[in-house]
Specification:
alpha+beta, Hypothetical upf0131 protein ytfp, five-stranded antiparallel β-sheet, 3 helices, globular, GGCT-like, GGCT-like_sf, AIG2-like_dom
Length: 172
């Protein structure tokens, strides 16, 4: 079973949870989720990203243009093959605060989606259409109000769609 991560669990982040995921899995490569947006969430203890799927094309149901918080419509992350999916998902659901004991509605939901691998585990670029079915955690709360303004704790849309790049650029 495969997992797509786009935040602090990605390779390149050095924290106890990313190290734990690396121990419990095998890195398969870098991937992209088209038709999705990545948002910056201001947390109480630390900041983190949130992915929203199936983002509209900037038009409402009547075809009228609506305000867009950012133009990028893809999210970049990493794919891992889980060595023991059942126990790893128990830990991940708790980490993402969407397990059975978590208060509802949860910030995240675990969902199965398809991602396109763009780089393999050896760092080689993949040029063909290599789609893989993965589990991932998507944002379950609203990001914008009816006027298109962001709703707290959402701070901004991450134009690059890449949390690792965003945080590295922010720390320079």
């Amino acid at each position: 079973m495969f997992l797509f991560v786009y935040g602090t669990l990605r390779r390149g982040f050095n924290n106890k949870n990313s190290e734990k995921l690396n121990f419990l899995s095998k890195w398969m490569g870098k991937a992209i989720v088209p038709n999705a947006k990545l948002y910056y969430i201001k947390g109480d203890e630390f900041d983190y990203p949130a992915m929203v799927l199936n983002y509209n094309d900037g038009r409402d149901n009547d075809g009228d243009e609506i305000k867009q918080t950012c133009s990028n419509t893809s999210v970049i992350g990493d794919v891992f093959q889980l060595l023991d999916p059942e126990s790893t998902f128990v830990w991940l659901d708790e980490y993402e605060e969407c397990g059975p004991e978590s208060p509802k509605p949860t910030e995240y939901l675990r969902k199965q989606i398809k991602v396109k691998l763009i780089e393999d585990g050896n760092g080689m670029e993949i040029n063909e259409n290599c789609w893989i079915s993965v589990n991932t955690y998507i944002w379950n709360w609203p990001v914008e109000n009816e006027n298109g303004d962001l709703i707290a704790p959402v701070v901004e849309c991450i134009e690059s769609g890449d949390w690792l790049l965003h945080t590295n650029n922010k720390n320079k």
